[in-house]
Amino acid sequence: MARVIYNTASTLNGFLADEQDSLSWLFAVGGGEAPDTEAFLRGMGAIVMGSTTYEWILRQERILEQRGRWQELGYMASLPAFVFTTRSLPAPEGADVRFVRGAVADALPEVVRAAGEKDVWVMGGGDLAGQFLDARALDEVQVSVAPVTLPGGRPLLPRRVESDTLELRSAERFGQFVHLTYGVRRAAGG
Ligand SMILES: NC(=O)c1ccc[n+]([C@@H]2O[C@H](COP(=O)([O-])OP(=O)(O)OC[C@H]3O[C@@H](n4cnc5c(N)ncnc54)[C@H](OP(=O)(O)O)[C@@H]3O)[C@@H](O)[C@H]2O)c1
Q1: Ligand 1 atom at shortest distance from the alpha carbon of 16
Q2: What pTM, to 2 d.p., does this model score?
Q3: Given a cut of 90, is residue 104 above it in pLDDT?
Q4: Which residue of 22, 28, 57, 129 has the smallest Cβ count within 10 Å?
Q5: Cβ distance 45 to 115 under 8 Å?
Protein backbone atom coordinates (compact mmCIF):
# COMPACT_ATOMS: atom_id res chain seq x y z
CA MET A 1 0.00 0.00 0.00
CA ALA A 2 1.11 3.55 -0.72
CA ARG A 3 3.01 5.39 1.97
CA VAL A 4 1.87 8.91 2.73
CA ILE A 5 4.80 11.30 3.05
CA TYR A 6 4.81 14.93 4.13
CA ASN A 7 7.86 16.41 2.44
CA THR A 8 8.66 20.10 2.61
CA ALA A 9 11.33 22.73 3.09
CA SER A 10 11.30 24.70 6.31
CA THR A 11 13.15 27.46 8.09
CA LEU A 12 15.25 26.46 11.08
CA ASN A 13 12.46 27.74 13.33
CA GLY A 14 9.69 25.82 11.61
CA PHE A 15 8.05 27.99 8.97
CA LEU A 16 7.05 26.89 5.45
CA ALA A 17 6.49 30.39 4.16
CA ASP A 18 6.57 33.90 5.53
CA GLU A 19 3.45 35.83 6.55
CA GLN A 20 2.89 36.92 2.94
CA ASP A 21 3.16 33.30 1.70
CA SER A 22 6.52 34.14 0.13
CA LEU A 23 9.31 31.59 -0.37
CA SER A 24 11.91 34.21 -1.31
CA TRP A 25 13.94 33.18 1.79
CA LEU A 26 14.10 29.62 0.39
CA PHE A 27 15.10 30.57 -3.15
CA ALA A 28 17.83 32.83 -1.70
CA VAL A 29 19.68 29.92 -0.04
CA GLY A 30 23.08 29.74 -1.70
CA GLY A 31 25.49 26.87 -2.08
CA GLY A 32 23.83 25.14 -5.02
CA GLU A 33 23.16 21.67 -3.74
CA ALA A 34 19.66 20.98 -2.42
CA PRO A 35 17.65 17.78 -1.98
CA ASP A 36 16.58 16.40 -5.38
CA THR A 37 12.82 16.91 -5.54
CA GLU A 38 12.62 15.29 -8.98
CA ALA A 39 14.16 12.05 -7.66
CA PHE A 40 11.72 12.06 -4.73
CA LEU A 41 8.83 12.73 -7.11
CA ARG A 42 9.53 9.65 -9.19
CA GLY A 43 8.41 7.53 -6.23
CA MET A 44 5.14 9.43 -5.92
CA GLY A 45 1.81 8.48 -7.49
CA ALA A 46 -0.31 11.39 -6.24
CA ILE A 47 0.14 14.74 -4.57
CA VAL A 48 -1.96 16.48 -1.96
CA MET A 49 -2.00 20.15 -1.00
CA GLY A 50 -4.07 22.85 0.64
CA SER A 51 -5.59 25.62 -1.42
CA THR A 52 -3.05 28.27 -0.33
CA THR A 53 -0.23 26.11 -1.67
CA TYR A 54 -2.18 25.40 -4.88
CA GLU A 55 -2.92 29.08 -5.46
CA TRP A 56 0.73 29.89 -4.78
CA ILE A 57 1.78 27.46 -7.54
CA LEU A 58 -0.81 28.93 -9.93
CA ARG A 59 0.52 32.45 -9.28
CA GLN A 60 4.21 31.64 -9.14
CA GLU A 61 4.20 29.59 -12.33
CA ARG A 62 1.60 31.78 -14.10
CA ILE A 63 -0.34 28.61 -14.80
CA LEU A 64 -3.63 30.15 -15.83
CA GLU A 65 -2.08 32.76 -18.08
CA GLN A 66 -0.64 30.32 -20.55
CA ARG A 67 -2.14 27.17 -22.05
CA GLY A 68 -0.05 24.07 -21.37
CA ARG A 69 1.98 25.77 -18.63
CA TRP A 70 0.93 23.19 -16.00
CA GLN A 71 2.19 20.35 -18.21
CA GLU A 72 5.56 22.13 -18.44
CA LEU A 73 6.06 21.63 -14.70
CA GLY A 74 7.29 18.15 -15.58
CA TYR A 75 6.61 14.90 -13.78
CA MET A 76 4.70 16.60 -10.96
CA ALA A 77 2.11 17.80 -13.45
CA SER A 78 1.51 14.27 -14.71
CA LEU A 79 0.36 13.15 -11.25
CA PRO A 80 -3.17 13.39 -9.92
CA ALA A 81 -3.19 16.43 -7.61
CA PHE A 82 -5.71 16.58 -4.77
CA VAL A 83 -6.41 20.11 -3.56
CA PHE A 84 -8.24 20.56 -0.25
CA THR A 85 -10.56 23.54 -0.45
CA THR A 86 -14.04 24.67 0.52
CA ARG A 87 -14.07 27.04 -2.45
CA SER A 88 -14.55 26.70 -6.17
CA LEU A 89 -11.10 27.09 -7.72
CA PRO A 90 -9.94 26.97 -11.34
CA ALA A 91 -8.03 23.97 -12.68
CA PRO A 92 -5.51 24.20 -15.51
CA GLU A 93 -6.75 22.76 -18.81
CA GLY A 94 -5.85 19.10 -19.22
CA ALA A 95 -4.54 18.77 -15.65
CA ASP A 96 -5.67 16.02 -13.31
CA VAL A 97 -6.50 18.36 -10.41
CA ARG A 98 -9.20 17.05 -8.08
CA PHE A 99 -10.79 19.30 -5.45
CA VAL A 100 -11.69 17.66 -2.15
CA ARG A 101 -13.01 18.95 1.16
CA GLY A 102 -13.72 17.78 4.66
CA ALA A 103 -12.21 14.95 6.63
CA VAL A 104 -8.93 13.45 5.44
CA ALA A 105 -10.29 9.98 6.22
CA ASP A 106 -13.06 10.52 3.64
CA ALA A 107 -10.71 11.66 0.87
CA LEU A 108 -7.96 9.15 1.64
CA PRO A 109 -9.29 6.07 -0.22
CA GLU A 110 -9.46 8.00 -3.52
CA VAL A 111 -6.01 9.52 -2.95
CA VAL A 112 -4.43 6.14 -2.23
CA ARG A 113 -6.24 4.54 -5.19
CA ALA A 114 -4.96 7.28 -7.49
CA ALA A 115 -1.37 6.71 -6.32
CA GLY A 116 -1.54 3.02 -7.31
CA GLU A 117 1.66 1.21 -6.35
CA LYS A 118 3.42 4.49 -5.59
CA ASP A 119 3.45 6.83 -2.61
CA VAL A 120 1.47 9.97 -1.81
CA TRP A 121 3.21 13.32 -1.37
CA VAL A 122 1.55 15.70 1.07
CA MET A 123 3.11 19.03 0.03
CA GLY A 124 1.53 21.09 2.78
CA GLY A 125 0.64 23.33 4.33
CA GLY A 126 1.33 22.39 7.89
CA ASP A 127 -2.21 22.22 9.16
CA LEU A 128 -3.24 19.90 6.31
CA ALA A 129 -0.27 17.66 7.16
CA GLY A 130 -1.53 17.83 10.76
CA GLN A 131 -4.96 16.69 9.60
CA PHE A 132 -3.29 13.65 7.97
CA LEU A 133 -1.45 12.99 11.21
CA ASP A 134 -4.67 13.32 13.24
CA ALA A 135 -6.31 10.81 10.90
CA ARG A 136 -3.38 8.37 11.46
CA ALA A 137 -2.76 8.63 7.72
CA LEU A 138 0.83 9.87 7.71
CA ASP A 139 3.78 7.46 7.40
CA GLU A 140 6.76 9.77 7.07
CA VAL A 141 7.79 13.39 7.56
CA GLN A 142 10.69 14.72 5.49
CA VAL A 143 11.96 18.23 6.11
CA SER A 144 14.73 20.11 4.34
CA VAL A 145 15.86 22.65 6.89
CA ALA A 146 17.27 25.88 5.48
CA PRO A 147 19.71 28.10 7.39
CA VAL A 148 17.02 30.74 7.80
CA THR A 149 14.81 31.96 10.61
CA LEU A 150 11.74 34.14 10.25
CA PRO A 151 9.85 36.10 12.88
CA GLY A 152 6.60 34.44 11.81
CA GLY A 153 4.80 32.76 8.94
CA ARG A 154 3.07 29.51 7.99
CA PRO A 155 3.96 26.79 10.48
CA LEU A 156 5.56 23.46 9.55
CA LEU A 157 3.29 21.30 11.71
CA PRO A 158 1.03 23.15 14.16
CA ARG A 159 0.38 20.18 16.41
CA ARG A 160 1.88 18.86 19.63
CA VAL A 161 3.83 15.83 18.39
CA GLU A 162 6.14 14.05 20.78
CA SER A 163 8.88 11.46 20.42
CA ASP A 164 6.49 8.54 20.85
CA THR A 165 5.11 9.51 17.43
CA LEU A 166 8.16 10.58 15.42
CA GLU A 167 11.32 8.51 15.01
CA LEU A 168 14.40 9.92 13.29
CA ARG A 169 15.42 7.69 10.36
CA SER A 170 18.06 9.77 8.64
CA ALA A 171 19.78 13.13 8.50
CA GLU A 172 21.61 14.07 5.31
CA ARG A 173 23.43 17.20 4.35
CA PHE A 174 22.74 18.85 0.96
CA GLY A 175 24.81 22.00 0.68
CA GLN A 176 23.28 24.44 3.15
CA PHE A 177 20.26 22.18 3.83
CA VAL A 178 19.84 19.33 6.31
CA HIS A 179 17.29 16.80 5.08
CA LEU A 180 15.61 15.02 7.98
CA THR A 181 13.47 11.92 7.59
CA TYR A 182 11.17 10.81 10.42
CA GLY A 183 9.01 7.73 10.52
CA VAL A 184 5.56 8.20 12.04
CA ARG A 185 4.40 5.55 14.44
CA ARG A 186 0.76 5.38 13.40
CA ALA A 187 -0.34 3.54 16.54
CA ALA A 188 0.96 6.31 18.82
CA GLY A 189 -0.74 9.58 19.67
CA GLY A 190 -0.36 12.58 17.42
N1 LIG B 1 8.48 25.49 2.10
C2 LIG B 1 7.88 24.67 1.26
O3 LIG B 1 8.50 23.80 0.64
C4 LIG B 1 6.39 24.77 1.12
C5 LIG B 1 5.63 23.63 0.85
C6 LIG B 1 4.27 23.73 0.78
C7 LIG B 1 3.66 24.96 0.95
N8 LIG B 1 4.41 26.06 1.16
C9 LIG B 1 3.79 27.37 1.36
O10 LIG B 1 3.36 27.38 2.71
C11 LIG B 1 2.12 28.07 2.79
C12 LIG B 1 1.10 27.10 3.34
O13 LIG B 1 0.08 27.82 3.78
P14 LIG B 1 -1.04 27.21 4.75
O15 LIG B 1 -0.48 26.23 5.68
O16 LIG B 1 -1.73 28.41 5.30
O17 LIG B 1 -2.04 26.58 3.72
P18 LIG B 1 -2.46 25.32 2.85
O19 LIG B 1 -2.51 24.05 3.61
O20 LIG B 1 -1.73 25.31 1.55
O21 LIG B 1 -3.96 25.79 2.55
C22 LIG B 1 -4.85 25.99 3.61
C23 LIG B 1 -6.25 26.07 3.06
O24 LIG B 1 -6.65 24.83 2.49
C25 LIG B 1 -8.05 24.64 2.69
N26 LIG B 1 -8.23 23.44 3.50
C27 LIG B 1 -7.36 22.91 4.42
N28 LIG B 1 -7.87 21.78 4.95
C29 LIG B 1 -9.09 21.60 4.36
C30 LIG B 1 -10.09 20.59 4.49
N31 LIG B 1 -9.95 19.55 5.32
N32 LIG B 1 -11.18 20.71 3.73
C33 LIG B 1 -11.34 21.76 2.86
N34 LIG B 1 -10.43 22.72 2.70
C35 LIG B 1 -9.31 22.65 3.45
C36 LIG B 1 -8.56 25.90 3.40
O37 LIG B 1 -8.84 26.90 2.43
P38 LIG B 1 -10.21 27.20 1.61
O39 LIG B 1 -11.27 26.27 2.10
O40 LIG B 1 -10.50 28.62 1.91
O41 LIG B 1 -9.84 27.01 0.18
C42 LIG B 1 -7.31 26.36 4.13
O43 LIG B 1 -7.33 27.73 4.46
C44 LIG B 1 1.79 28.56 1.39
O45 LIG B 1 2.28 29.86 1.22
C46 LIG B 1 2.59 27.62 0.49
O47 LIG B 1 2.94 28.18 -0.74
C48 LIG B 1 5.76 25.99 1.27
Answers
A1: 1
A2: 0.96
A3: yes
A4: 28
A5: yes
